[in-house]
């Protein structure tokens, strides 16, 4: 079988070629990745009858990713999620960052790693296909100290799993928090929303946020709240309740603290879509996961095949360290120092239920 194909997806305004890598496994699952932002532009998986469909949101052309994207399918860096006030202090020095979310810094800034063209090295094995993406971020990029050399490796295996493996080194002390920002809809491109998807999170705590979506510092128990997804629960069952945190985020857009011991890969999330039978499992080495229910999709963008990217038509499961960790010493550290090595892995598993 042909596991790997490469073609041209387009060119950026400065003439840089953006490649499209197509990865396939023995079961027919197909993932298409572009070198701009490391974006997963499509993901074809079967339903319970064996019919394949695309289960991720996105666009048909490069121009739309350049001008209309809300982080659809991309690699997020240097720092996924928010940093309060667009600044942090490390070793006694304060670093001002680009502010692109009100007064806050979001997803790496104005030109984060979602907006660069990565260097690609595709590979093929007997039981898998993948691509190694490389990017070097210069010292001072978006305000961050240190030159950071990063690699992100996508591997699609015959076990019907996509591994996303992140690695990085730095020349100066810095902070780093990489994640993947795919919007999923397991019902396929014709589905209006994701509210009927059933979600389970391996998380008994979450980090409440202020009215500008910055963690307050509290780590709260989910018990007795709309944030308790420890058993399989429809995403839409409690999403419109008047809980203060749901009102602030217009739904779910919160960091869930995973129940885990040590740094090994740990189950983080399980999703089932009742109509198609498709399932999604997420395991990660990260301490947390941001569950986002697509609250800021507003019908203003036309996606693949002319589909309107409507309110809550996709959800994200962004494995990560906590938002604003550089400003919360009690949170798990995101500091990377020279001689150190950043390593993180998340596995997305695809399946069906009868």
The name of the CATH architecture is: Distorted Sandwich
SS-based class: mainly beta
Major sheet attributes: 9 strands, antiparallel
Strand elements, count = 27
Fraction in helix: under 10%
Taken together, the total number of domains comes to 1
Number of helices: 2
Mean pLDDT: 97
CATH class category: Mainly Beta
Detail the poorly predicted runs.
none
- Please report the distance between the alpha carbons of the first and last residues: 28 Å
Strand order of the largest sheet: 11-12-13-14-27-23-22-17-20
Binned strand content? 35-45%
How would you sum up this structure, described in words?
The chain is mainly beta and 354 residues long. The chain has a single domain, classed as Beta-galactosidase, Chain A, domain 5, CATH 2.70.98. It has two helices and 27 strands. The protein has helices at residues 62-67, 244-249, and strands at 4-11, 17-24, 30-34, 40-46, 52-54, 75-76, 82-83, 87-90, 93-96, 105-106, 119-125, 128-137, 148-157, 161-170, 174-175, 179-180, 198-201, 205-207, 220-221, 233-234, 253-257, 266-272, 278-284, 288-292, 316-320, 335-336, 342-352. The two termini are 28 Å apart.
């Amino acid at each position: 079988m042909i596991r790997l194909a490469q073609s041209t997806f387009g060119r950026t305004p400065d003439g840089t070629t953006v490649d499209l890598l197509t990865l396939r496994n023995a079961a027919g699952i197909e993932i298409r990745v572009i070198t701009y932002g490391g974006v997963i532009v499509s993901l074809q998986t079967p339903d319970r009858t064996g019919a394949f469909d695309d289960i991720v949101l996105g666009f048909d052309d490069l121009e739309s990713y350049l001008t209309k994207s809300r982080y659809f399918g991309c690699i997020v860096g240097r720092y996924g999620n928010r940093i309060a006030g667009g600044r942090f202090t490390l070793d006694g020095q304060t670093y001002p960052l680009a502010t692109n979310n009100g007064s806050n810094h979001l997803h790496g800034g104005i030109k984060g790693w979602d907006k660069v063209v990565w260097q690609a090295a595709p590979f093929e094995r007997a039981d898998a296909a993948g691509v190694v993406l490389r990017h070097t971020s210069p010292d001072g990029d978006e305000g961050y100290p240190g030159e950071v050399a990063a690699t992100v490796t996508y591997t699609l295996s015959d076990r019907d799993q996509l591994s996303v493996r992140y690695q990085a080194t730095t020349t100066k002390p810095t902070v780093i928090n990489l994640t993947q920002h795919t919007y999923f809809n397991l019902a396929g491109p014709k589905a209006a929303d994701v509210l009927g998807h059933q979600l389970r999170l391996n998380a008994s705590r979450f980090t409440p946020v202020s009215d500008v979506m910055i963690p307050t510092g509290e780590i709260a128990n989910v018990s007795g709240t709309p944030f308790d997804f420890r058993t399989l629960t429809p995403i839409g069952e409690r999403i419109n309740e008047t809980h203060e945190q749901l009102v602030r985020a217009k739904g779910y857009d919160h960091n869930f603290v995973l129940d885990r011991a040590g740094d090994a890969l740990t189950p983080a999330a399980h999703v089932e879509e009742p109509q198609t039978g498709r399932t999604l499992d997420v395991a990660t080495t990260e301490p947390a996961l941001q569950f986002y229910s697509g609250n800021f999709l507003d019908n203003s963008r036309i996606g693949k095949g002319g589909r309107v990217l409507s309110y809550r038509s996709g959800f994200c499961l962004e494995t990560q360290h906590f938002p604003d960790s550089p400003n919360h010493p009690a949170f798990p550290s995101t500091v990377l120092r020279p001689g150190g090595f950043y390593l993180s892995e998340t596995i997305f598993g695809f399946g069906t239920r009868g």
